[in-house]
Write a structure and sequence with these properties.
Length: 178
């Protein structure tokens, strides 16, 4: 994949203007993901917590298809309050880097009146050029997510946590990490 940032658009901060895929790549379109768990319950009312989990859910789909966080070409982030997004960019950035590193795909932020799930405040959809990987490489990518975010993806692609991290996340549900 090649990053496309024309000088005429200025230097982007926190995103790329475009991502060009290889001609032989298949594209994986990831449906809008919100901040809910495997039982489809929102993890928190907190904006940053919902952002974090929605991004983790996007990555679960990417990993299940054999991709990687660094291969995501495009994200659209739907929010119900762009002012809160702007006010909490430092926290969002920390969560982003924990999961995506310094990879910034082409992105758009769209404010909406409401999402389908009424209590949801963030929804993220994505496009990733999918390619087949052997199971060893998929397992290695899952391990990287485990190391970066304190969680791991089980074989079905669901986000799972070690007992200690899960207990920590329950204690911080209104304030910080999942």
């Amino acid at each position: 994949m090649k990053t496309i940032n024309p000088k005429s658009l200025g230097r982007p901060r926190g995103y790329s203007n475009g991502q060009l895929t290889r001609p032989d790549a298949r594209l994986l379109f990831i449906a809008g993901q919100i901040g809910w768990d495997e039982e489809q319950r929102l993890v928190s009312d907190d904006f940053v917590e919902q952002f974090d989990r929605a991004l983790r859910n996007v990555l679960a789909v990417v990993l299940e298809a054999g991709g990687a966080a660094g291969g995501v070409a495009r994200l659209v982030v739907y929010v119900t309050d762009k002012r809160e997004y702007a006010a909490r960019t430092v926290e969002i950035g920390e969560r982003w880097r924990a999961l995506m590193g310094r990879h910034y795909p082409a992105m758009a932020l769209v404010q909406v009146v409401r999402l389908v799930e009424k209590a949801a405040r963030v929804e993220i959809e994505a496009v990733e050029p999918a390619r087949r990987l052997d199971q060893r490489r998929i397992a290695a990518r899952r391990h990287v997510i485990d190391d970066r975010a304190g969680g791991a993806l089980d074989v079905s692609g669901n986000l799972a946590f070690g007992r200690e991290k899960f207990a920590e996340s329950l204690g911080e549900i209104g304030a910080a990490s999942v």
